[in-house]
């Protein structure tokens, strides 16, 4: 038996035994999205519910139902204290319930996604990692598969690395593995990976997708988010050629562009021939596609989302969504009605990286309205924090058109943005602009 195999056998234990290694007061990093380990999180929730452990702080981005049904249960909040770096529907529901009970919301650490590894390892001092990985290879390495992001950095510094080994987790190339010698406990558990259903496309999505596709040149390099709007953009790009991908999130829409030959990564300046990502989320077909794919590489988020790295590929096009844009062009992509809705994520990382690339374009896209047409997304002033400052906003797209804000005066910006608003709100925005001394002709 090899030394790696012997180490593997010595680290195998049940989920209950594995979470017993976590002391009260621990600072835990939980895997993002698909990599949240169901067996381990269930055992930890049960241990906390039994009063065997307390005063845990749980750090993470983008929780799913796996966490929501276990460690993020409302009744455990006194023993397992969630600290979110990016909200999902789970935290929004927890916050609504807490508000009804007169309690504080889930704590939030404002940060760019690119800074998450350093924040967790240095500022927070996380001491435990809980995550799902692929089975060990012949060199003693486990692949983080769908989620390299901040997990790689934490695996190298945490005192306890507890892995859930799932044969359904894909094995991916790149800098995305942890060696068995770093592992404290291994829990073998076979379970289907979480899948995210496709959102249905609305007419606004299709219109925005067509506009953005018209702004993308053949040979450009793409970054896309998740949801109906990015799916619409990918669908509209089917007639393009020689596109590349350098993205924080790998999606089914991007995978389809690879399958049909639109993406070949041949015109990239770095990672030529390779699609680069830091986490993946979608359906089983996506996970099968990235499994062992020699044309794909996963790297940690402090590399993938580094604006200096992003800018090294020419004609970089980033597409990000926002919740609000004010008349100066500043974007709030994090809060709604005074409450945390999501977080900054990698938006500003790619806004700056794309614009810094030769011939690059940073695109902020959104429907012109929200709440069934009753609320304008283009507003006189933001209701929440500035995610993308006005100095950084480049191209804005709604279903009513697009505008390049770079080089425009404050008056010209306001006028351009009012033209992108829904017609029902343009008169209100005109009045607000004039009151601020803007949009003068």
Automatic annotation (TrEMBL):
<dbReference type="InterPro" id="IPR038460">
    <property type="entry name" value="AcetylCoA_hyd_C_sf"/>
</dbReference>
<dbReference type="InterPro" id="IPR046433">
    <property type="entry name" value="ActCoA_hydro"/>
</dbReference>
<dbReference type="Pfam" id="PF02550">
    <property type="entry name" value="AcetylCoA_hydro"/>
</dbReference>
<dbReference type="InterPro" id="IPR026888">
    <property type="entry name" value="AcetylCoA_hyd_C"/>
</dbReference>
<comment type="similarity">
    <text>Belongs to the acetyl-CoA hydrolase/transferase family.</text>
</comment>
<dbReference type="InterPro" id="IPR037171">
    <property type="entry name" value="NagB/RpiA_transferase-like"/>
</dbReference>
<feature type="domain" description="Acetyl-CoA hydrolase/transferase C-terminal">
    <location>
        <begin position="282"/>
        <end position="433"/>
    </location>
</feature>
<keyword id="KW-0808">Transferase</keyword>
<dbReference type="InterPro" id="IPR003702">
    <property type="entry name" value="ActCoA_hydro_N"/>
</dbReference>
<dbReference type="Pfam" id="PF13336">
    <property type="entry name" value="AcetylCoA_hyd_C"/>
</dbReference>
<protein>
    <submittedName>
        <fullName>4-hydroxybutyrate CoA-transferase</fullName>
    </submittedName>
</protein>
<dbReference type="GO" id="GO:0008775">
    <property type="term" value="F:acetate CoA-transferase activity"/>
</dbReference>
<dbReference type="GO" id="GO:0006083">
    <property type="term" value="P:acetate metabolic process"/>
</dbReference>
<feature type="domain" description="Acetyl-CoA hydrolase/transferase N-terminal">
    <location>
        <begin position="15"/>
        <end position="190"/>
    </location>
</feature>
């Amino acid at each position: 038996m090899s030394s790696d195999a012997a180490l593997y056998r010595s680290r195998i234990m049940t989920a209950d035994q594995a979470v017993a290694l976590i002391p009260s007061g621990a600072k835990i990093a939980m895997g993002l999205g698909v990599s949240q380990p169901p067996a381990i999180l269930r055992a930890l929730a049960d241990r906390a519910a039994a009063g065997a452990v307390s005063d845990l702080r749980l750090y993470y981005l983008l929780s799913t139902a796996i966490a929501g049904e276990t460690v993020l249960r409302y009744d455990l909040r006194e023993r397992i204290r969630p600290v979110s770096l990016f909200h999902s529907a789970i935290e929004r529901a927890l916050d609504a319930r807490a508000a009804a009970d007169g309690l504080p919301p889930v704590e939030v650490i404002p940060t760019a996604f690119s800074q998450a590894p350093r924040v967790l390892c240095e500022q927070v001092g996380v001491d435990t990692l809980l995550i799902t990985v692929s089975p060990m290879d012949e060199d003693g390495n486990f692949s983080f598969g769908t989620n390299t992001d901040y997990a790689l950095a934490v695996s190298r510094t945490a005192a306890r690395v507890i892995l859930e080994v799932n044969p359904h987790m894909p094995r991916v190339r790149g800098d995305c593995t942890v060696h068995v010698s770093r592992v404290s406990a291994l829990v073998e558990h076979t379970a289907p990976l979480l899948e995210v259903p496709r959102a249905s496309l609305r007419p606004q999505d299709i219109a925005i997708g067509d506009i953005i596709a018209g702004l993308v040149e053949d040979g450009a390099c793409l970054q896309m988010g998740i949801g109906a709007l990015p799916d619409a953009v990918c669908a509209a790009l089917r007639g393009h050629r020689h596109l590349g991908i350098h993205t924080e999130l790998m999606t089914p829409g991007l995978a389809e562009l690879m399958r049909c030959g639109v993406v070949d990564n041949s015109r990239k300046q770095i990672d030529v021939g390779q699609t680069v990502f830091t986490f993946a989320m979608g359906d089983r077909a996506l996970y099968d596609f990235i499994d062992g794919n020699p044309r794909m590489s996963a790297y940690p988020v402090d590399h993938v989302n580094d604006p200096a790295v992003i800018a090294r590929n020419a004609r970089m096009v980033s597409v990000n969504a926002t919740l609000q844009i004010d008349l100066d062009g500043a974007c709030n992509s994090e809060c709604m009605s005074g409450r945390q809705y999501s977080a900054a994520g990698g938006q500003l990382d790619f806004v700056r990286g794309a614009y810094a690339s030769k011939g690059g374009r940073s695109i902020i896209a959104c429907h012109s309205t929200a709440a069934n047409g009753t609320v304008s997304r283009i507003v006189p002033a933001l209701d929440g924090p500035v995610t993308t400052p006005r100095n950084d906003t480049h191209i804005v797209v709604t279903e009513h058109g697009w505008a390049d804000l770079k080089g425009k005066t404050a008056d010209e910006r306001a006028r351009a943005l009012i033209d992108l608003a829904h017609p029902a709100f343009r008169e209100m925005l005109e009045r607000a602009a004039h009151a601020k001394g803007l949009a003068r002709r």
